Structures are given as C-alpha cells and as structure tokens.
Amino acid sequence: MVNKKKISIKQIAALSNVSVATVSRVINNNGRFSEETGKRVMDVIKENDYTVNMTAKSLRVNKSKTIGMIVPDISNEFFSTVVLEIEKFFFDRGYSVFICNASQNDLKEAEYFRSLDSKLVDGIICISGREDIPLDVMKRNIPIVCIDRKPKNDNNAIYVESDHYLGGFMATEELIQKGCKHILTLTKSNSLSVTNQRLEGYKDALRKYNYTINPHLIIKLSGNRPSFEEARDTVTYLIKKGIEFDGIFATNDWRAHGALVALQQNKIPVPEKVKIVGFDGISVSKYCNPPITTINQDKKTIALEAADLLYTLIIGEKISKPKHIIIPVSLIVRSTT
Fold first, then answer.
1. Is the dihedral of CA 54, 159, 199, 208 positive or negative?
2. How far apart are the C-alpha atoms of 67 and 125, rounded to whole Å?
3. Predicted TM-score (pTM) of this structure
4. Quick one: how many helices (H) and strands (E) in the chain?
5. Closest CA to 101 of 126, 64, 120, 135
6. Could you give the CA distance from residue 245 to residue 247 in angstroms, rounded to a whole number?
7. 3-state SS, residue 172
8. pLDDT tens digits for range 276-290
9. Where are the alpha helices (DSSP H) in 123-248?
10. Contacts of 176 (CB under 8 A, 6+ apart)
C-alpha cells in the first residue's frame, strides 16, 4: 500500500492504470469513463484513503462546494429550524455549510462575513439581526440571500420573509373578534422591517374596527434580556401600575409565554379576563399551559425558498422567481383566545 499521507492524484492514476485526466473525471463525476474504470479508480482511492485537497481545488475551479449561514441566535427555535432545513438541502447537493452564530452582535456578524469570504464560500444565507449587510468587508462578489430582513443598503437584495404585516393584523383581529377592547402589544424597540410590519398590522386591525390606537398600550421592549423574562416582568409591572388591558399581542411566542406567566402569577385568568396571541408557531406555544394561540411561520418553506434561490445563483442559472418572496402565515387558535 502506498503511504496514505503522501499519495497524489498521479499515484492514483498509476495504481489504477489510467490517466490523471481520467482520475479527475471520476473524482468529479464529470465527463466520460466506463463503469469498470470508475470502480477501479474508486477502489484505489478508498484503499489508500485519498482525499481531495479542497482548498487547492476551489482556487482552481473557483468553487468550494461550501456555503455560509449567518444566524443572529442559534438557540432561537425559529432560526435553528430554518438552519437545519437549509443545511439538509445543501448537503443533499454535495455542499458543506458553515453555520455562524452572530449572537445579535453587529461586529461579530461583520467578522463572520469577512471570515466566510476568506474561506471562499460559494454563497451566503443571512438571517441578520441588523438592517444592513456589511458588504464593505467582502472582497468577492458572491451571491447573498437574506431571510426575514430587507437589507437597507441594497436595493437589489434577494430576500425571503413571512407576511409579517398580515400576521400582525390577523393576531389583533383574532383578539378583537373574541371581544377584546384594550389590546396591549409587546414588541421590540428596533427599526427592523419585521418589527415594523407586525406593528403596522396591529395598528391597521385596530383602525379597521374603529379602535383608538393607544400609545400607552404599545410596549417596546429593549431586547437586552431574554424575551420571556422581559415580557413577564413588563406585564407584571403594568398590572401593578393598574394599566387596563384585556388582550395581548406578543410579537414572538416567548414574549407571549412571559405574558401568560405574569398573568398567572397575578391570579388573572386566561382567557377569561385576558386573551393572548403570540407569533412564530414554535413549540413553547404548543406545550405551555394553556397552549397559546399564535401566528405560525412556515419555517420549512422559508428555508427551502431561500436555499433554492442561493443554489440557483451559485450554479449560474437565471432566477425565475421574484427577488422578494413573501411566505403566507396562518393563525393557530388555541386556549388563550
């Protein structure tokens, strides 16, 4: 057996009694060679534990068969579910995926863009926690697809998102139709398009039913603490302060759960006195007690649309879909309404 550490493609060719070009065709499964030849070459490769120098290959063909994924918080179930679907999509097509957890830190996110660029990834899917993409740190012009964020600095950006506006509208309408008159919303104090769209949906539902938009019932949380804790403590504070509300639209399910726990701790029955609707459709909304009515995001479709767009760009085909894809949401009615 040839020394595994030193075996080269030329030695593989000699041992297989074929040309170097034929070995290359077999490795890349590209071009013409007989089944017998392919098996003979692959047997030699396996026997000698030969591996392709992917760095050298990527420099030669300008393709690394890798992509990068930047996620603001991998512990968030919505993001992790989307990431797993995308990873599977690309693995099935022979790609490796670098998953980068930015921890909602702008500097860390920019550094990941720089790092992925230096690793010669073929493209990037970004679920960003910021409004713009740090394109200034990129040395190459590679495909980038965004999820749930419309990049502020790129009018030609390709992005996939849920119908956040409709979700906010549907959530608020559900509370109105179930008899709520004073609807509190728990949202986040940032200017991201997702946040703004859900809040606009809330406001337009109130307008449709001739409700007054009370700014004191629009609670913008800092986001500096976990959503559950911040919502729980805020709702407890509002109860102690005597703020009147009989419905809560929380812009994610963890905020909805925090609100639910605060009401329970203060002996306020749900849904008899206060009704709650969350957003995302993650497992906490289903398995808490009582289960929370929520706006469900179709996480699998979001992931597959984004992955398909990036893959199409990587292989050099023309995109036949819109550059901005909006995925429908749905209302899941449970015990809190």
1. negative
2. 8
3. 0.81
4. 12, 12
5. 126
6. 6
7. helix
8. 999 999 999 999 999
9. 164-177, 193-208, 227-241
10. 183, 205, 206, 209, 211, 247
